[in-house]
Design brief:
It is a single chain. The protein is an alpha/beta fold. The protein folds into two domains: 2-39; 47-248, Rossmann fold (3-Layer(aba) Sandwich), CATH 3.40.50. Helix content is 37%, strand content 16%. The chain has helices spanning 2-18, 20-42, 74-87, 101-109, 134-140, 191-202, 221-230; strands spanning 46-48, 91-95, 115-120, 159-163, 180-185, 205-213, 237-239, 245-248. An eight-stranded mixed beta sheet has the order 1-7-8-6-5-2-3-4, with helices on both faces. Strand 5 (180-185), helix 6 (191-202) and strand 6 form a beta-alpha-beta unit. Helix 1 (2-18) packs across helix 2, helix 3 runs parallel beside helix 4 (101-109) and helix 6 crosses helix 7 (221-230). The longest helix is centred in the first third of the chain and has 23 residues, at 20-42.
Length: 251
Amino acid sequence: MRLKKNMRRMKALFFTLRYPHLAKEGLKSILGTSYYEGMLKKSKIENKSLSQIVNLYNEIRLLNFDVRCGNVSHFELLTIASMIATQKPHVLLEIGTFDGNTTLQMALNAPDTAIVHTLDLPSEVVSLVQPILEVDVKLVRDKQKKQRKYQKTSCEKKINQHIGDSATYDFKAFCKQGLVDFAFIDGGHSYECVRSDTENVMNVLAPNAIVMWHDFTPDFHGVFTYLNEISSRYPLIHIAGTNLVYYKKQQ
C-alpha cells in the first residue's frame, strides 16, 4: 500500500515538473471549484430543483436554441421556458437582449396574446449612469448580435425591442398593456447595475409576477452579493443546476 502511494506521488511530481502549466491550471480549477461551492453553501438563498417549482408535464417549445458565450445554458433556457409555460404571463420583460436567444424562447412559451418587451444598450456605448463590467461592454458590442434570433420568426410580432440604458429608461413604457407578469434580469452584472434593474422592475410588477435573475455565481460578485443581500426582504429561490434565482411576488 505504501509503495503504491509513493508511486502515485512520484507520478504527480513528474507530471508537475514535466507539465508545470497544466499542473497550475489544474490547481486553479480545484481551488476555484472549492471556493465556488463554499460561497454557495454560505448563501442565504434557498436551493430547489426545477421539479419542485414547476409542472414538468407542461409542454414547452425551444427553437434555434444553440448557445454561445453570453447566452444562458441549455438547461437554463429549458428552466425559463418551463417557468413561463407554468406561469402563462401576458406582459414579459427582459433586461439584456444580447442576441435574442432567450427573448425568442420567452416569446415561444408565452400565450399567443402576450407581449415581450426586451431592453438592450446601444452597440456604441458612450457613457452610462451605473458602472459596467468590461465583459458586459464586449457583449454589447458583439457584432454577431446584429441579427437577433427572434427576427424573421413567427414570434417576432410578439416582441417589442427597446434600446437604451436601463438605469435611466422609463419603465412605464413596458406597462402599456398592463403591469409586468414575468421579468428576466440579465443586463449589467455590476452590483450597481443589478440593484438598479431590480428596483426598477419591482416598481412595475403585477400581483403574482415572477422575477428571474441570471448569473447568481461568485464569478459575478456584484450579482451574487446583491441577491444575497435582498434575500432577507424577498423569498428568493436558487434553482439547482443553474445560475438562476427567482422570486414570486405575493398579492
